């Protein structure tokens, strides 16, 4: 085919290809749209799930939540006093010092005098029957001479013995290792004898006696001296004092938690205001971007960045409100104003965060004061003293026992 004829034939083909490419460019530049599908629900005889049968009672609607209580106005001093008064954990810790002081009374009771008393009553009966020959004189009478006859007589004899005895003793163990015992034993015995024979008489005999005993026992080796015998009492006192220091540490820890939570809650409230302002600013900027896109100053791609900034600020605000709620519950748990506080009670903090003026002492003076007042250091010192007393008791227990 000649070259000229080929050019004449190719021009229409090139023009068609250009037109098709333009249409394709225009078609692909449009944003894709999802087709709308209309699906008709299948016909059913009754809705799903089926209604409840008439005999099944329909549950009552849930009660509406109670209205929140008025906000609790708190200063930092009020919060500390309320926590010390009503905190449940501190109330539990307060039992330990009282329990430790009972050990002092138990150890002191070892040196109290003890009194023992007893009373015994008994009765012994011994009865027997016997027959005796009793002479009987017959006087002379009319036609009857005088004489003596013997008859048998049945008689009873016996004795009743009543015995009453008792004892009263007092003993005391002294811190020196001395044991003193004093005992008194009174006794009374009554013996009644009788016979039922004619002309016989009974007898009543009473015997009384009183005995006393005093003994003093001294430990010479094992158990001798005030140091070993008072070790238990001194350990109990040290344990009570250590429990007091432990309770003081619990109070200091509670006060520190209340102050930290109080100021964290105050800071969270300020952060919420800042986050709300930043969200409002992001929303205003998004509206401005939307308006500038509408008038054609900005491209469509700028809308995504503005919306992302609004979403970010909204997310930060949600997280901030969650942290604020957690701090509110934590502070209410420490204060424990009432049983329903964790559900409905809001807080209004009245103390403004200001920098206090603190005049610091010299470093050496502060270290010395902390060494005297820190509860954990005092507890460590008391623990060393208690261990020393245990060592004294152990050493004395290795000695042989010798009493005088």
Characterize the structure shown.
The chain is an alpha+beta fold. The chain has ten helices and six strands; from the N terminus they run αβαααββββααααβαα. A hairpin with a 4-residue loop joins strand 3 and strand 4. Helix 2 packs across helix 6, helix 6 packs antiparallel against helix 7 and helix 6 packs antiparallel against helix 10.
Short description:
With 404 residues, the protein is α+β, with helices and mostly antiparallel strands. The chain has helices at 3-29, 76-86, 88-93, 95-108, 226-229, 231-295, 302-335, 341-344, 363-373, 375-397, and strands at 72-74, 114-138, 147-173, 178-195, 203-218, 347-349. The strands form 2 sheets. Strands 2-3-4-5 form a 4-stranded antiparallel β-sheet, with no helix packed on it.
Shape: elongated
- Specify the structural class: alpha+beta
Order of helices and strands: HEHHHEEEEHHHHEHH
Can you give the mean pLDDT?
80
Helix content: 40-55%
For the largest beta sheet, what order do the strands appear in spatially? 2-3-4-5
Q: How many strands, which pairing sense, and closed or not: the largest β-sheet?
A: 4 strands, antiparallel
Strand segment tally: 6
Radius of gyration using CA atoms only: 54 Å
In angstroms, what separates the terminal alpha carbons? 149 Å
Strand residues, percent? 15-25%
